[in-house]
Amino acid sequence: MSRLRVACGLSVVLLGALAAACHSQAPEAQNQAEKINLAGRYTCTGTNPDGGAYQGVVQIKKLGDAWQLTWQIGEESHEGIGLVTGNLLSVSWRIEGGGGVVVYTIKGTGAERKLDGKWTMFGDNGRVLDEDLTPLL
Question: Is 81 exposed, middle or buried (0-12, 13-18, 19+ CB in 10 A)?
Answer without folding.
Answer: middle
